[in-house]
């Protein structure tokens, strides 16, 4: 199941705790809890909404980024677990386009934007359904970059099958493009728009519109294609 319902976050440990536990060789490494790369209060919103949540829109709770999965547990103890192959893309968007709770206004704060691949186990008719998206808004806005970095690091531990033969293709800016707000480029073997499929060009154009490249500082990867085969055309908004 692409998105799993949970009632607790389960056990996870910090990198320091993992180092302590492995100072002597454990009898079974598989029995060790997953390493937690980030955890804290956040709002999340699925579009379209998930039936597992009581209402559509934003949910407040605890977000946990572990080496095995992205987890969220709401204040009502309703939660979700997403393994990294399910997260086909994650990015930083400098402006959240989903109105916040008790407000009709968009947030001026940056957020994490993800596309979710729910194709596993679907029939052909279901595969034509709307692409599900996930928006993550940390309570502390300064933690947006930290969540993105944690997602990037953990996703790299779970490459898609095709990526085991072909290098991943992250969307990135070099220093000059980054500072000037120029059009981003695909790194890796695909550089020419002519080599992209129509779906790929459509998706790339949407990403360019979604992320305000001129507002980003530093030489960082702000959009990651975690599973290139799973990226679909996102709905126009």
TrEMBL record:
Q: Which Pfam families match?
A: Voldacs (PF03517)
The segments labelled Disordered in the record are: 217-237
The keyword Transmembrane appears for this protein: no
Q: Entry's InterPro entries?
A: ICln/Lot5/Saf5, PH-like_dom_sf
Cite a single GO BP annotation.
Answer: mRNA cis splicing, via spliceosome
Q: Does the keyword Cytoplasm apply?
A: yes
**GO CC annotations?**
cytosol; pICln-Sm protein complex; spliceosomal complex
PANTHER family, alphabetically? CHLORIDE CONDUCTANCE REGULATORY PROTEIN ICLN, METHYLOSOME SUBUNIT PICLN
Question: By what name is this protein known?
Answer: Protein LOT5
Q: Which organism is it from?
A: Mixia osmundae (strain CBS 9802 / IAM 14324 / JCM 22182 / KY 12970)
């Amino acid at each position: 199941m692409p998105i799993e319902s949970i009632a607790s976050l389960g056990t996870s440990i910090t990198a320091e705790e993992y180092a302590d536990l492995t100072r002597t060789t454990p009898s079974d490494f598989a029995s060790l809890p997953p390493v937690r790369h980030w955890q804290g209060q956040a709002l999340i919103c699925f579009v379209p909404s998930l039936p597992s949540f009581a209402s559509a829109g934003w949910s407040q709770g605890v977000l946990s980024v572990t080496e095995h999965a992205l987890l969220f547990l709401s204040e009502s103890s309703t939660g979700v677990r997403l393994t990294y192959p399910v997260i086909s893309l994650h990015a930083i968007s400098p402006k959240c386009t989903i109105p916040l709770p008790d407000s009709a206004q968009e947030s001026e704060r940056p957020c994490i934007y993800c596309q979710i691949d729910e194709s596993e186990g679907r029939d052909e008719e279901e595969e034509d359904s709307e692409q599900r998206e996930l928006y993550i808004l940390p309570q502390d806005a300064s933690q947006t970059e930290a969540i993105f970095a944690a997602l990037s690091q953990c996703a790299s531990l779970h490459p898609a099958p095709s990526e085991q033969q072909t290098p991943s293709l992250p969307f990135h800016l070099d220093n000059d493009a980054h500072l000037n707000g120029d059009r981003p480029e695909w790194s890796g073997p695909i550089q020419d728009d002519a080599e992209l499929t129509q779906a790929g060009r459509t998706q790339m154009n949407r990403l360019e519109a979604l992320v305000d490249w001129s507002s980003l500082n530093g030489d960082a990867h702000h959009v990651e294609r975690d599973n290139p085969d799973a990226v679909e055309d996102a709905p126009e908004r």
